Amino acid sequence: MPHDVPPLTRRARSLRLIARVVVGLVVVAGSAATLPAQADATWLTPVPAEATSSPDRPTREYTPHRVWQMKKNCVWAAGAMLVDKWTHGGVRVSQSVLRRASNDKKGGSSLYNLARGVGAVTGIRLRFSPGSGDTMTWWQLLDRIEHNGGAVLIGEYGRLSAYFTRWDRAFANRRNNSHAVYIQTYDRIHGKVWLMDPLAEGHYPGEWINVEALHRFATIDRGKVMAAATPVRHQPQTAPLTDHAYDLTSPRLATTAVAGSVLRVSVGLHISSGFPNPAAHRFVGRWVPVAAARVAQPPRLLRAVLDGASPGAGLPPPPVAATTSSAPDRPSSSGFRAAVPVPTIPGRYRLSLGLTEVGHRTPSRSFRTVVVEVVDPFAARVSLPAVGDVTAGERFKVKVGLANIGSLDWRTPVLEAEGTRTIAPATPTLFVLSWRSDDGTELPAAEVPAELAPGQAVALSVALVAPPDAGTWTLTADVVNPVRGALSSTGRDLSRTSVGVGPKGLSAEP
Questions:
Q1: Residue 335: what pLDDT?
Q2: Strand positions, DSSP E, 358-495
Q3: For the CA atoms of 379, 385, 388, 391, what is the dihedral angle to 10 degrees?
């Protein structure tokens, strides 16, 4: 049965009018705003001065009584719930009274008719969207009801799923199925809105609806939603990143993580439902070591190469956990980009990344943990191809890829002397290949200058001679810097490949 108010008798109406005048006099004496006196208005209760003194004051959570609409009264039933919400139960007016007060007798009522009826009965100036003093986008409407507001929302009933149109299937299938519902309580994290449908029967209190389904229902004209809502409590510039409309990709690590430097991180962003770009956020990274670097001693033959060079800084200390954060980034529509500081100690880390809004501590979004190898400033990447079987003493060439992935410059320093550009006498950084047999025998294979700037890569064609003895040999790569020593001494294991060396064939003498 609809929650409507029966017409009052003439005597009861007079008593209500007297009560309203008395309340008005008391409120005026207290310098508070009151409702205008209207002899033809019908009330359940007079509006308290508290409810009308400042419609923009913060509101507490309150759920109005659900109103079951009479025929063609969806706007008025939803409007009665809106008035109940607006006044926190101070005024509960019937749908029929609102309709009569608006002078709407034809049916198919609009928000304009509702505003007239609410104003005539309650004195509340009901502005609405899209073009009547309270224009809202979809995300602004959601933000308003998340902050304890309520709204009458106009849409097409037939665009709802079958579950939500169970109250009137025939109406949902009609060509003209414009409908008004009352909504409140936006659960942003789960993407749901509390829906109170005036078509619902009996003691139905309301139910949760996915915000995407409600968005399909809503009538939106050039980005503005057709709705009437309680007053805005604040003026948001954007929605929180926790909203369903912000779809983020997994983080992409664009560069090598060099100890003591920064790691470029980007996250793709897709925005739906007309939401604006999110606010500025910063990346927060939690670095947790997962394993210590494995130490690999350089081959003995490198002693000659290292003779006279600095022994280097030695092995770094073991990694420790660290938390770092980037500078704030105001994203574009394509996503977030920032530089996250890298721990100063090389090693393998488990990196947990999150995006935190500026001024907040709790992450808006967290991402799946990834394992990142933090390299020493002196670091290289070597691509050594498979060689296959060769004959002892055979000459051949291999194509090697070499990259300086650290921050140390391998190029020989340049000095200025009396205005003339001269090269300082120094040992260049060398790319070194060595042969190792199963029994521990070591032989030099090749030494090639490697004058590479940080981030530079080169393809080398290196001439080799196979070992003189048959067997299985390992071709091992290393980089030797005159200041830092052998790269393998830092605990980094570079590329190596196994080579089968066959014996020389016998040749007949003439």
A1: 93
A2: 365-366, 370-374, 380-383, 389-391, 395-404, 414-417, 420-423, 430-437, 442-449, 457-465, 471-481, 485-486
A3: -70
Give the model's pLDDT for residue 306.
Answer: 46
Rounded distance, CA 39 to CA 28, Å? 19
Low-confidence ranges of the chain (pLDDT < 50): 1-59, 293, 295-296, 298, 301-313, 506-510
Instruction: Quickly count: other Cβ atoms within 10 Å of residue 278's Cβ.
Output: 24
DSSP letter, residue 273:
T
Two tokens at 257?
């993580």
Look-up of token digits 């190029």: 411
pLDDT value at position 423? 53
Q: Would you tell me the crossing angle of helices 74-86 and 95-102 to the nearest 10 degrees?
A: 100
Strand order through the sheet with 395-404: 380-383, 395-404, 457-465
Query: In angstroms, rounded to a whole number, what is the distance separating the alpha carbons of residues 166 and 200?
Result: 9
Helices (H), 123-270: 138-146, 169-172, 211-217
**Residue 277 contacts residue 454 (beta carbons within 8 Å):** no
Structure tokens at 375: 């390299």
* CA angle 349–354–360, rounded 5-degree value: 135
Residues 428, 410: Cα–Cα separation, whole Å: 8
Q: Which residue has the tokens 């809503």?
A: 218
Residues 372-405: tens digit of each pLDDT? 999 889 999 999 988 889 999 999 999 999 999 9
- 267 burial level (CB within 10 Å; 0-12, 13-18, 19+): buried
Dihedral sign, CA of 364, 370, 371, 375? negative
Which tokens is 8 given? 């009052």
Q: Is 453 exposed, middle or buried (0-12, 13-18, 19+ CB in 10 A)?
A: exposed
The pLDDT value given to residue 489? 80
Q: What does the alpha-carbon distance between residue 295 and residue 65 come to, in Å, rounded to a whole number? A: 72
The 3-state DSSP class for residue 119 equals: helix
* Degrees, nearest 5: CA angle 413-414-420: 165
What pLDDT sits at residue 115? 95
String of DSSP letters for 141-178: HHHHHHTT-EEEEEEEGGGS-TTTTTT-HHHHTSS--E
Instruction: Return the C-alpha torsion angle 35, 36, 42, 48, nearest 10.
Output: 10
Tokens of 212: 């995407």
Give the pair of three-digit tokens for residue 436: 């190792």
